[in-house]
Design goal:
Blueprint: H1 11-14, H2 21-24, E1 29-30, H3 35-44, E2 57-58, H4 66-74, H5 78-85, H6 96-114, H7 127-138, H8 146-151, H9 155-184, E3 190-192, E4 197-200, H10 210-256, H11 263-277, H12 287-311, H13 316-321, H14 332-339, H15 342-354, H16 358-390, H17 406-445, H18 456-473, H19 478-505, H20 511-537
Length: about 550
């Protein structure tokens, strides 16, 4: 036997260090060998050196495994898990249910970090899951407001405003990701609570979020401002949903059955559905309904584009040249453009953390920017094509401008169902923030005694009814509601706070980068003030 290599050992010994895919794993990969174990074995046998460890390789996926793998990706709860963690903070006291969910995820991360197998199961996913999460966060019912926004702005200003908002957002998102990296790279020593001794000095991943980064950079005041902004912005989005769905269902029922049911009655129906759904705190239970909502939204987008292109057959160029390049109400499109990013900025940090492999986490910022740019390009095409197809009188919600017929009615109905399923996910950050704050105040006013008014389900029900009341009062002003929510609430969260957070957390920030951060934050403040005031003046 050659003493130089371990590979020449007898097969009975050598096979002990060879991992067979069939024997060691049921997944579609072969685990790599541990070099330290091979070195120890070589030392015990008196060999001069160990053989090279086998590298981890992927096994070929069987054709029969493809449908299963696709379903695993589609039903991956990482996106809903990210939404659930979007407003968590690690420095405050957690309620019992929230504490259990928080430590469930933290324990999974610790177990995953300490595991030798890089494919150990835990909370999180890969870049594919992250890309799907980005798309889910960006592409929603708000896209249906774009054709009307383009029609009231003109393409000469609408496209630059949308692209300008995208540039500002991508810069702000990079500030937030840089801040996350600075904080997540801090070393936390794991301590054995029983022996009170250090067991390792490895980096322990800690759950971070946008509000948590605001707390570390700007203190309690900054955290409160970010949380309030997120809560109000998500409430504004849900407010548009409570206007959007009744209008769609009113049109659908009128065309399909001839029933002229007022939107206010459909609003009551939607509230009765949303109140019990708002009581569910673990939103990962909405995985199946979220998948159905995504399928319905995809169906609606494809059908709307089909209607649009069918209307433009033969006169595409004539329609384009007759479009107005500029409209005087262009300022309202600022808020509409910003509202498109409402779901992305709050999910940014949780989606980054949901990517488990270190090499994939390093790639996430670049992948994120590319996906966002691709989605914005699609938004530009969708907005201008919808405007060209349905003319200057295209309504605020595109689906209500579709030609009469069963296919158009199916699209309106599909979008309504999708929004009903999406509503609890959008409203979750608002409910988490508001319920904790209101419950704390009620508890304090009653000198520590618990009352029914401090219970989460009661507060959630009240907030849903309150939103519905506002929706009933603004039912005929959806375009102005969208603009005001985006400008007044979206601009600070998307453009102002991330650069300020980065400037405070990065001790080695250059003067140029710090100045750029302040310029971006300043642009966000100016856009917020100008667009909000002008929208209110024309209400």
């Amino acid at each position: 036997m050659d003493d130089d290599v371990l590979g020449d050992l007898p097969s009975s010994i050598s096979n002990a260090f060879n991992y067979s895919p069939a024997e060691t794993h049921v997944k579609t990969y072969t685990a790599g060998e541990d070099g330290s174990r091979l070195a120890l074995a070589a030392k015990e046998f008196g060999l001069l050196r160990q053989r090279a460890p086998r590298k981890q390789v992927r096994a070929k996926t069987k054709p029969t495994d493809i449908p299963k793998n696709v379903m695993n990706i589609l039903l991956d709860p990482s996106f809903l898990d990210a939404r659930m963690r979007a407003v968590w903070t690690t420095h405050g006291l957690l309620e019992d249910e929230e504490d259990a969910l928080y430590h469930e995820i933290q324990a999974s991360w610790d177990q995953l970090q300490q595991a030798q197998d890089p494919h150990a199961q835990g909370i999180g996913g890969n870049l594919t899951s992250a890309v799907l999460g980005i798309i889910k966060g960006m592409v929603g019912p708000a896209i249906l407001y774009l054709p009307h926004g383009f029609a009231t702005t003109g393409y000469v200003l609408a496209i630059p405003i949308l692209l300008g908002a995208t540039v500002l957002y991508l810069y702000s998102s990079s500030c937030l990701l840089d801040s996350w990296k600075l904080e997540s790279d801090e070393t936390n020593t794991l301590v054995d609570p029983e022996k009170s001794s250090f067991i390792s000095a490895t980096k322990r991943r800690t759950i971070l979020s946008y509000p948590e980064l605001a707390y570390r950079a700007l203190g309690t005041t900054g955290e409160s401002m970010v949380k309030t902004g997120i809560a109000l912005m998500q409430s504004g989005v849900c407010l548009t949903y409570l206007i959007f769905v009744p209008q769609n269902l009113h049109t659908s029922a009128l065309q399909l059955f001839g029933w002229n049911i007022k939107p206010e009655l459909w609003l009551i129906v939607m509230v009765m559905i949303q109140i019990p759904l708002s009581w569910i705190r673990d939103i990962r239970k909405f995985t199946l309904t979220n998948l159905l909502a995504n399928v319905l939204i995809l169906y609606g987008l494809i059908t709307c584009l089909s209607f649009a292109f069918a209307n433009m057959v033969g006169d595409f160029w004539d329609r384009f040249v007759h479009l107005d390049p500029y409209r005087s109400s262009w300022f309202m499109f600022i808020g509409t453009a910003v509202l498109l990013f409402e779901g992305s900025i709050t999910l940014l940090v949780p989606l980054q953390e949901a990517v488990q492999k270190p090499e994939d986490r390093a790639k996430f910022p670049v992948v994120y920017k590319r996906v966002i740019l691709a989605i914005i390009c699609f938004f530009c095409v969708f907005g201008i094509v919808g405007w060209m197809a349905f003319g200057d009188n295209v309504r605020t919600v595109l689906t209500t401008s579709l030609p009469t017929g069963n296919l158009a009615t199916s699209v309106q109905f599909a979008y309504s169902i999708a929004v009903i399923f999406t509503f609890p996910l959008q409203n979750f950050p608002c409910l988490e923030i508001a319920c904790r704050s209101i419950s704390k105040q009620v508890h304090s006013c009653n000198h520590g005694r618990r009352t029914i008014w401090g219970k989460r389900n009661v507060i959630c029900s009240f907030l849903v009814v309150l939103l519905a009341t506002v929706a009933a009062a603004t039912m005929d002003s959806l375009d102005k509601v969208v603009s005001l929510m985006g400008s007044l609430l979206g601009c600070p969260i998307a453009f102002v706070f991330p650069p300020l957070i980065h400037s405070q957390l990065d001790p080695n920030i250059s003067k140029k980068r710090k100045m750029t951060n302040y310029i971006v934050a300043g642009i966000g403040i100016v856009a917020m003030i100008y667009s909000s005031i002008t929208t209110i003046m024309v209400w």
